[in-house]
Amino acid sequence: MSPTRREFLRGTLGVALAGKLESAGICQVAHSATSGDDFRHPYGSSNFGEWIEDEFALPAFQYTCNQTTDSRAVTQLQPGLLSPTEHIHQVGNDRITALASNFGHVRVRQDEGCPKLLNDIDPEMSQFGGGLGYLTDGDETLTTYYDGSNSSFERIFGIGYYRKRIRGKSYSLDQVIAAPFGDDPVLVSQATVTNHKDTPATVRWVEYWGCQPFQFSFRSAIESMSGFGAQTKLRRDLGRRFSHRISRIDDKGLLESKHFEGRSVDEEAAWQRAKAMLRANPNGFTAPVADLRPGTDFEVLDLPQTFLVSLDGPTSGISSNAAAFFGNGGPANPSELKQPLDDHLEAGGAHSGLLLQRTVHLKPNESQTIRFLYGYLPDGFAVHSLIAKYEKSASSVLHDSSRTWKQKGMRFDVPSEPWVKRESTWNHYYLRSSQTYDDFFGEHILNQNGFYQYTMGFQGAPRDPLQHALPFLFSDPEIVRSVLRYTLKEVRDDGSLPYGIVGHGVVAPMASDNASDLPLWLLWAVSEYVLATRDTDFLNEKIPARFSAIENRSETIRNLLERCFRHQVNDVGVGQHGVMRMRRRLERRSDLHMGSVRLQGVHRRKRKRIEFCDGGMGL
Q1: Distance between CA atoms of residues 604 and 588, nearest Å
Q2: Dihedral sign (CA 329, 334, 338, 341)
Q3: Tag placement on the chain: N or C end, fewer CB within 10 Å?
Q4: Is the dihedral of CA 142, 146, 151, 152 positive or negative?
Q5: Coiled-coil segments, which residues (predicted)?
């Protein structure tokens, strides 16, 4: 039931006054009296943990919930990427985005070609994400996979990093996975091992990263809507169709290449039937699938290579046989951990993984840090260049990145309410670190993420990244320029913009493809940029029109904006009350289906035609 205006205002005012009441002790005492929690925890802490300040004087969240036993960790979800008790933190820079899980693993998202995860979680295929480490002396074992059994396991979600600390009987372990600030497609994993015994010790560390892809395929979304299988299963089945060839990189590590083994005849037939069903029975949400333009596709079958290397010492063992390593023990207790890695690479198969071993000799009560580099290789990057760069800088990556994050962006500080500064710092990090690179447009983009990207596989609508970019007008205008160029390249010959992009440069087949307000948002955003920066030369840049019917067409930004304006005035126009028209009209439907998602229709009168600005989305 929708709240009344009074209830809404009361709730809004409550949020606005919360900090003042907290500082007066009113909210703290009331909360403590009813829940028994320690009211001295920083404002904004929760059942899942509390806010802290890390060693770099930046905000971080110490996650303390044991999600394997605490019922409060359960969220009812449709089957998909996350389990009901999984909570994630974003570790990213200007290109790479990693989903760091409360279970300890990390999945890396990469958008060149099309949006995808490079290391899916698929236990049946011995695929467990990545960023997992295992320490053993043959008797005692510590793992950075969280299964709830070790009460000393600490998890810290930081700005640009994910930290896991574990204490055992004889050893302790501190693993940090960090995204170097900037545009490199890599993560640095460093593990600090401490010997708490009064005698020397020799231990082995095994670093694991998986390699099964999971594409956010809109083709799978269409097939699912047409009743040809669950969307997540279809996408996972596609990932299983890739075999893996893993080779050595000198004595430093491993390089993985993927090969698509092809689809079955039944899978191809299902896709053709799904398209035929859409043509015969439009569902009001997805339009019939048109022939694809050259160089575009719903999915990509030529995937980038991935690699894992040791940065500060030679490996003492390697393996690509993830199935044998994990065995029946899974990520919490790998079956073959007590045996050194056999230094043998199996013939590429679907059960492959990247496994490196380092041997560490520790003096009594000594600590040592070892470092690894994981990444992927889009066009313009070479593995040996990346290795050389981070061999020199790996020891300072976390410190240097944190220092840069402190300097970047705008800050808002209210001395009487310290949580405000924390929130503005944290929100800036989450916004900027969600940037990825789209090689079809050749630009960075601030994707909406969430349901649009991770469920639908959908980059849209243009109004969203245009809004997301606005906070960077005065701090990082280059981000704004990239988002503007991306959107300008979408402008069609009539001045309209597609509602969304899927796969590699495919205009999403949406019934709402020609929403009325999209060019208006582009006009607004460019105006804001020019007014804020006085960069009028930007208007004279030439932009390739990627969706023009005229081959190799390019125009100045000034001309593209004029085309958008004329489209807005002449094609969209205004109604009898001077308000911009909504172009997309749909017959009333009780519901619109998008896979398992139900978009509830608006009911006014029987048979009355209704108008959607978004064609039924975002209502």
Answers
A1: 9
A2: positive
A3: N
A4: positive
A5: none
Q: Which two tokens stand for residue 517?
A: 């307000």
C-beta separation of 449 from 435 below 8 A = no
Best CATH choice for the domain 41-213+303-408 from the list 3.40.50.1980, 2.70.98.40, 1.20.1560.10, 3.90.640.10: 2.70.98.40
- CA–CA distance, 185 with 93 (Å, rounded to integer): 9
Task: Check pLDDT > 70 for residue 604.
Answer: no
Is the Cβ–Cβ distance between 484 and 535 less than 8 Å? no
Q: Residue 369 carries which side chain, given as an amino acid letter? A: T
Tell me how crowded residue 17 is: count the other CB atoms within 10 A of its CB. Answer: 12
Count of CB atoms situated within 10 Å of the CB of 66: 15
Residue 81 has pLDDT above 90, yes or no: no
**Residue 519 Cα distances to 159, 478, 491, 562, 566, angstroms:** 35, 21, 8, 10, 10
Domain ranges across the chain: 1-37, 41-213+303-408
- Within 8 A by CB and 6+ apart from 120, the residues are 107, 127, 129, 210, 212, 213, 214, 236, 239
pLDDT digits over 17-43, tens only? Answer: 444 434 433 333 333 323 344 446 888
Q: Which residues of 402-438 are buried (b: 16+ CB within 10 A; e: fewer)?
A: beebeeebeeeeeeebbbbebbbbbebbebbbbbbbb
